[in-house]
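Re-run with default settings, no changes from the original entry. Doing this only to confirm the output is reproducible before filing.
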Amino acid sequence: MTYVKANIRKPSGMPGKGINPKDAIVIYDVDDIASFPQRNAAGVVIEDDIVMKAGKYAVQVYLTPGTAQIQSNSEGDADAQGYRPQVLFSHPGNSQEIREFKQNWLGKNVIVVVRYCNGEPADLIGSPCNPCQLAVEYTGSNEANASQMTFAQVSKGDDIAIYRGTDTLEVPVSVVAAASTSVTFAGEGQYQLTGGDAAAAVNAIEGGSHGKVITLMGVTSGTAPTVASGSQILLKGGVAWSAQPGAQLTLRAYDAGGDALKWIEQSRWPA
């Protein structure tokens, strides 16, 4: 979608009252990424998933509710302007786990995803060519025991992206049993398909609501199921998808009226 000049009017509701992110941010190690999706032509929205190398996952870091701040300031001379976005938050205590995280992620090139409790699209900061890096300030006293962590883009570049994909985490939202012909919606995220002794075909998604996004993940062993374009699941060009190891298929739900949903392909890997 190419950017079209338009008036910017007052948003509905009270969007200026402050952000309400979930209590964990998602961090991708750039070295673990197999494929990073491009922004659309307007330069902000990323529709497709970040695809990880086999056996690699993003990690989540807990943040104290109410401490998250996202900043994105423009800088540079007239012919060299860009943005330097960053996210700041507090993590309580100084456990072994957080000390090891700070020690081993310092200096790493990462991409950060912030998701919101009210269902707003996720924010994404960084890219493989202009990643974020960690900075830490720890305080232990009779009044506080916490690490203030900042992930900032290393150089000026693009503003914060809107990320409409799902996150590759070690624990999927749901594991779909072998030989299943439907997937039961249990929340946005990734669904691990299971291979069986014989070929199976998934032809339905049960539950969900308009705008929800799921990603079906290829099997780790066994005969891979397939997903075909049909009355409820619509695939690009009508081309069926096979859940081979490492493959991914992302679907978005659209209201078809009468409480019916159509799940439409957003992206697949390999393409």
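The chain is about 5% helix and 40% strand. The mean pLDDT is 93.
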